[in-house]
Amino acid sequence: MSDSEDPEASATIEARLREQEYFRPPTKFVGQANATDPAIHDELDEFPDGFERYAELLDWDESWDQTFDGSNPPFFEWFVGGKLNASYNCVDRHLEERKNQTALLWEGTDGEQENITYQDLYRRVNEMAAALRAQGVEEDDVVTVHLPMVPALPITMLACARIGAPHSVVFAGFSAQALAERVDSAQSDYIVTIDGYYRRGDFLEHIEKTDDALKQTDRDPTVLQWNRHDEAKADVDDDYVEVDSLLEEHALETVEPVSRDAEDPLFLMYTSGTTGKPKGCQHRTGGYLAYAAATSKNVLDIKPEDTYWCAADIGWITGHSYIVYGPLALGTTSVMYEDTPDHPHKGRIWEIAEKYDVDIFHTSPTAVRMFMKWGEEYPESYDFDFRHMTTVGEPIQPEAWLWYYKHIGDEDAVIVDTWWQTETGGHLITNLPALDDMKPGSAGKPAPGIKPALVDDQGEKLPEASGQAGNLIIERPWPSMLQTVYGNDERFISTYWEDFSDTDSDDWTDWNYKAGDGAVQAQDGYWRILGRLDDVMNVAGHRLGTMELESAVSEVEAVAEAAVAPRKDAEKGEVPDVYVILREGVERSDAVKADIVGAVEEEIGKFARPANVIFVDELPKTRSGKIMRRLLEEISNGEELGDTTTLRDPSVPEQIREQIHGD
Ligand code: WTA
């Protein structure tokens, strides 16, 4: 970290940085990077064989016969006939060379610490795998995992992978109801949870969510309960099975990793879409792991000797691919942190970076904006030196990028802005850090082998590098793409393929994956992501469906109708504004607002809490009765109103605007 500079010099540097469009990766970075040969792009362009390079990063029990099978679009298959085990690849195969190296470096609240070596991880994953089996978990059973950022989470995931049971991790911040919904949707007979964990230093009873979820599901799942300390701190149901005693029973047992077909599912990850129900994105074993490992190597530049820290939550896809599977497949040391960045002080992240001498740091633009608001004095008080930094999840504004570059990276680290999705399994648009110059605000070039394109709403392709905005599609399959929406192939097709593919064709080249994002490709070939074009919002990097929020709000008695619109927010990117029509005779009151906020917390989780609840008389609707959320979004943002001619009553948006902003 640079020492405090004199303010005048600092202002000059900032002015210079602002004018600069491209930033070269530092020579010392390039000199040591994993991917330094531009030929990687040509090699991966050999479709599909180029992707074999990725699969070769893994250990296979049996090699594949066919790299790609596109005969039944859009159900593409990768590394067909190959067999492997993900837990073996992330754990066992590293024992020979680095069993005493730390695999997971866990930092708990208030400085508690665990160094889990690859040998420890091997033991613990095996014991957990034995415990799960003893509880009846069989190959292909979906295990729902509702755990926070504690070692139990990756251990449980890898134990599931070892016995071939797909895990479905539900972010710990999700409510009981959201948990129940995912248990039902995945037809899961197992929930793995924990008594509690720490948030801002306070013990949070987590197991209650499972208690409540069980009341809401028709299923009767077995509950396996970890304890955050030696003994449960919460009031725990007698029917739950304590993991600690199971582990004691199975101490030092080993479980042969189950050899899985490359196409067997490794996990489900539920994500928000355009309907009220989240979709279970199903990821395959071989293609997913190969792509996560290869991008961890080429994009994140991870080497086994690095200390790598992705400050995301494992409960989201970023944590799956880039805290657990990718980094551990490469045999590196991956840091996990339990609590929030501001506890017990706003320098906590940098304190941890210094303590562990972190080399590679990965975070979200929301976090960068927050650090920026807190001020550079926090990072400046600690001695750390990143060589590589990543952002993910939302567009990063050049201003925040520059701050990150200067104050966190000391103008001496590369930054990669990685665009991808739960569905894509790994990075799709991102620079390879040693090969491309950085351009603030832009996700960069396509990853090797990836073919993005832009189409207009009619599906006509826009010219390349035209600077025009369009719908982002991916024209060619890639190994870590979702296999389907769990149990719902139709929804898989209608959500991702129907709009921009020739669905009658059985030639895979006629099929295009629809990302749901808008994007622009500038003349220099760099891509800028503009954000979601569908009813999905991005709140502090968390993906939320407006329909999910609306269905939660509609549960409130007093509510007749509700519509949710994203409002731009300087820190969180977007926040949800809820527009509500109350039932006849119900008074507009703070109590009703509180009920509405409470309903969202209950059905989804606190992280989805609405920013504003606005009572209105009418909602802007088309003649066919469809709510035009776009107009509400424009009102929320104080923007010019777009076309209102299709509205049944074109005066409605103006009325709402006057009510909110006055006139
Ligand atoms: C957005 C997170 C701009 C995008 C990995 C996408 C981004 C959604 C970026 C997926 C980025 C992700 N720049 N926007 N670098 N990365 N997004 O499924 O709208 O939680 O569709 O996956 O986040 O969110 P998800």
Automatic annotation (TrEMBL):
Residues 1-22, 638-663 are annotated as: Disordered. The keyword Ligase applies. PROSITE patterns: AMP_BINDING. Its EC number is 6.2.1.1. Pfam families: ACAS_N (PF16177), AMP-binding (PF00501), AMP-binding_C (PF13193). Keywords: ATP-binding, Ligase, Nucleotide-binding. Residues 548-626 form the AMP-binding enzyme C-terminal domain. InterPro entries: Ac_CoA_lig (IPR011904), ACAS_N (IPR032387), AMP-bd_C (IPR025110), AMP-bd_C_sf (IPR045851), AMP-binding_CS (IPR020845), AMP-dep_synth/lig_dom (IPR000873), ANL_N_sf (IPR042099). It comes from Salinirubellus salinus. It is an enzyme of class 6 (ligase). NCBIfam families: Ac_CoA_lig_AcsA, PRK00174.1. One of its GO terms (biological process) is acetyl-CoA biosynthetic process from acetate. The keyword Nucleotide-binding applies. This is Acetate--CoA ligase.
